[in-house]
Design brief:
single chain; 280 residues; alpha/beta; Rossmann fold; 10-stranded mixed β-sheet; 10 helices; 42% helix
């Protein structure tokens, strides 16, 4: 699959500039167009939290103030997103454009992601908004395309050392297929298995695409009932192999378990020091 269109949703936060810069890095590598997209929350949606009596006697003033505050916040966020766009695109050679739309942010991001080859977003941090995390999940589950997550202040130049987190799942297979443009350009590709998954078939598959890969298998560390250390192991391996990019399937286990257990996806999402290409 060729990468021709890159979707880069920005919320007007401090992360916007480096997300746009990373998307432009990829665009310059793959000769692609970057669509920088700012989803604007419809201020009227905030009135839903007031309940059905929001416009009744004594509530009209409160509803008006909430609507005005939401409109002011939306304008400020759009202004910051446009400023980040202007700063990040200065003197860059990749083709790009800026668009906005109004509605529910996660739904808007997923809709734009469906008509792009890949979505570039900021990796969640402790200070990230629920809107960002909701947008990442929406793009992963509802777009049918991969998501490229960028750590703070990290670029996205062509990765030389790429790791594939392989657990023989449909999600991992989808991620490998989506990552082919990256794997074909890499100098070193390492298939990583934690817990005894065979890497032979994956290596044969990659070789048919002209990709030479190494295998790195380790046993899963023992963990408690409500703890999953696979994500930490994966990050340790990434550091040991000095990888530039990790390719992995997202949420291979039931999502409800991911909310209870510190699952591999959530661990890597929140802590990875390198970009992650994920697919579901």
């Amino acid at each position: 699959m060729a990468i021709r269109k890159i979707h880069a949703p920005v919320l007007g936060s401090d992360q916007s500039r480096w997300v746009i810069s990373a998307a432009l890095d990829l665009a310059e590598t793959f000769d692609a167009f970057v669509e920088v997209f700012h989803p604007k929350r419809d201020p009227a949606l905030d009135l839903a939290y007031l309940g059905p009596g929001a416009t009744g006697m004594g509530a009209g003033v409160g509803a008006t103030r909430i609507l005005e505050a939401a409109e002011t916040q939306a304008k400020e966020q759009e202004a910051r997103a446009r400023q980040a766009y202007a700063e990040a695109t200065r003197e860059r050679t990749a083709r790009h454009g800026f668009i906005t739309d109004v509605g529910r942010e996660a739904e808007l991001m997923a809709a734009r992601a469906r008509v792009a080859d890949i979505t570039v977003m900021a990796r969640p941090q402790d200070t990230s908004s629920p809107t960002l995390e909701g947008g990442i999940e929406a793009c992963l589950f509802e777009s049918g395309h991969p998501v490229y997550l960028v750590p703070p202040e990290r670029g996205a130049h062509a990765a030389q050392k790429v790791g594939i987190a392989w657990n023989d799942s449909p999600e991992a297979a989808h991620a490998v297929a989506a990552a082919m443009p990256f794997l074909e350009r890499a100098q070193m590709v390492t298939a990583i298995s934690i817990g005894g998954y065979s890497l032979d078939s994956l290596g044969e598959y990659l070789s048919l695409h002209g990709i030479t890969s190494a295998a790195h298998s380790v046993e899963a560390e023992s963990s408690g009932l409500l703890e999953d250390t696979t994500g930490e192991q994966m990050l340790d391996i990434c550091r040991h192999l000095q990888l530039d990019l990790l390719v992995m399937g997202a949420y291979s286990h039931l999502r409800i378990r991911q909310l209870i257990v510190a699952g591999a996806t959530r661990t890597v999402l929140s802590k990875s020091p390198i970009p992650i290409l994920m697919a579901h």
